[in-house]
Amino acid sequence: MSKIKNKLFQPRPTWQKNLIVLWFGTFMAGIGFSLVMPFMSLYIDTLGSYSNQQLNFWSGITFSSTFLITAIVSPLWGRLADQKGRKLMLLRASLGMAIVISLMGTVGNVYQLIGLRLLQGVFSGYISNATALVATGTPREKSGQVLGTLATGAVTGNLLGPLVGGVTASIFGYRLTFFITGSILFLVFLLSLIFVHEEFTPVEKKDMLPAKEIFHSLKYPHVVIGMFVTTLIIQASNNSISPIISLYIRQLMHNHGNITLVSGIIASIPGIATLIAAPRFGRLGDRIGSEKVLGIGLIFAMLVFLPMAIVTNVWQLAFLRFLVGISDACLLPAVQALITKYSPQAAAGRIFSYNQSFQAAGNVVGPMIGSSVSSIFGYRGVFVSTSALVLTNYLLVHRNTKEIAEKYHSTQQTH
């Protein structure tokens, strides 16, 4: 018992304390963005009288509006983060999200809901600034493992959000779910205010390098820009099945049983796998090179998405979704480790905010691809098209990281 107590209350370096608080913060931010997924359409249905076609239209607009605004405003917040510090941006994002998500429980019509979803996009940036703050404060030799651990917070929050939302809404109702989430995000604001410490020297506006000069000064600009595109395709691949997964499950279950609960569980399974595997792959990346882990993860993802098109029951789908979580554990932490390694610390806020813009764009593009493909080729066609998307990503990553992989390999040989 005393051993556990000592472990829990031992003095820790600042970067470790920040990691603990920001892991919880990014986990809750991830949940805040995704918990409405299982019941958003049902909530919209209570705000008016809509036909099925109108309901699909308003649900699509409401879902994508947040990510659309996030993609646009992220670079502006990133610039401010490099100027004023990342902690200030964490406080802005967590307090803003707490207020906006709580207000969603009070809306009287779909237009007010869309307005608040747009506003939620304005208050994005918690995850990208948490990543930038941890990345710049962590010893370089531990960056892969630490960013791998931090990434599990956001990824797991995003993937468990639908399950948490579905369960909470079924117990407390739709409106109260928004107030509960808002309260938890207010707690994230308080924890970030009290326990996150940042050593930051403010940069005068006139002393800041323009974005063009930052990219010109990069040793491997094609690697960093390539990672932005890779992030977009990872998100698009993961989200291409979002619009159809519950409908696909309904088809596999022949319209019998508790489809909502099964959909929530299967949507959340990857989060559990990611939580277990990401820190381990982060450590592996520190040892063998993050670009190698990224390549392995993409090949694995491609092999996992393909058989989803031919499953005959939900348990096979659940197993393959677990494997998707393992591939996710390879991907985003490796991308973040590569961005950290090949970017200047002074511009970390902006670099990570650009990455968040691409991530948000992937969240918009993915469901659009899934909806379009499923309407032409059926649900099973979505998994084939997603595998093709992952293959494209692998070829891009291989080309963009070839130079650094060769350099890493030759350095290891000399040692």
Overview of this structure, please?
- This protein has helices at 2-9, 14-34, 40-45, 52-84, 86-103, 110-122, 126-137, 143-172, 174-195, 211-217, 221-239, 245-252, 259-288, 290-305, 314-341, 348-377, 379-414.
- With 415 residues, the chain is an all-alpha fold.
- The N and C termini lie far apart (43 Å).
- The mean pLDDT is 83.
- Keywords: Cell membrane, Membrane, Transmembrane, Transmembrane helix, Transport.
- It is a multi-pass membrane protein.
- This is Multidrug efflux MFS transporter.
- Pfam families: MFS_1, Sugar_tr.
What is the compact description of this entry?
InterPro entries: MFS, MFS_dom, MFS_sugar_transport-like, MFS_trans_sf, Tet-R_TetA/multi-R_MdtG-like. The protein has helices spanning 2-9, 14-34, 40-45, 52-84, 86-103, 110-122, 126-137, 143-172, 174-195, 211-217, 221-239, 245-252, 259-288, 290-305, 314-341, 348-377, 379-414.
Major sheet size, sense and barrel closure: none
- The H/E string reads HHHHHHHHHHHHHHHHH
The coarse silhouette is: globular
Mean pLDDT over all positions: 83
Task: Tell me the total number of β-strands.
Answer: 0
Terminal CA distance: 43 Å
What proportion of the residues is helical, as a percent range? over 70%
Uncertain residue segments: none
Number of discrete helical segments: 17
**What is the strand content?**
under 5%
